[in-house]
Structures are given as structure tokens and as C-alpha cells.
Amino acid sequence: MCPSKRASIITGEQNVDLISDLIGKMDEQGLDRVEAASEAQAKWMVHVAEVAAGTLYREANAWYTGRNVPGKKVVFMPYAGGVGTYERICESVAADGYRGFLIDPAQTRASAPRTTAQSAAY
Hints:
This protein is mainly alpha-helical. Helix content is 45%, strand content 9%. The chain has a two-stranded antiparallel sheet with strand order 1-2. Helix 1 packs parallel to helix 3.
């Protein structure tokens, strides 16, 4: 998730470019399925929590923590490390072959359950 609701104005174009480039590379290689690897998701959420730990954001009774919904797990999802840092992380992920993403060709979907071993080497 990008740095914040306000920052989405700034990072929105960067996010669109990142995903558009990924889709283009997938199309060139006949790949059409992508999702974030579970391990990458968990690692990102740990990083987001570590960055936010030194802020008051996590204490807010707001939609972005879930604290405003009784019984909902409280999780701080926006990235509080700054727009520049977020963009550098995204650029690094893309430069490293979309590290943390599982990308598959169409035929793996129809022929067999998906495994990490079937994923393209991105």
C-alpha cells in the first residue's frame, strides 16, 4: 500500500507506471497471472509496522488502522517511510525482476495447481 491517502496523488502515477511496466513485460513473455508471494507480503507488513512504530499513526482511531471498527484487527497499512523511500523500494523490486511476485503463464492455471516452482524467474 502506498505511503498514504494524500501521497497517493504523488505516488499514483508511479504505481501505475510500475504495474503497467510489469504487465508489459508479462505480455512480452506470454505470462498473464501475477500475485504477491505470501512471504513477500509478510515481510512488507513487518517493514511497514517497524517504520510506523516510531509514529503516532498506529494509535489513531481511524480507517487506516481499523481501530474504528469494533472487533477488527488493528493494522497500520499505509507506508510511513516517505514517498521517496517508497518509490525507491518499488524501483528496486522492479529492477530485481519484480522480486516478491509470483508470475505464471496461462497454461499453469488450467493444467495444475500453482506452486512457486512453476512461477517465472522474475
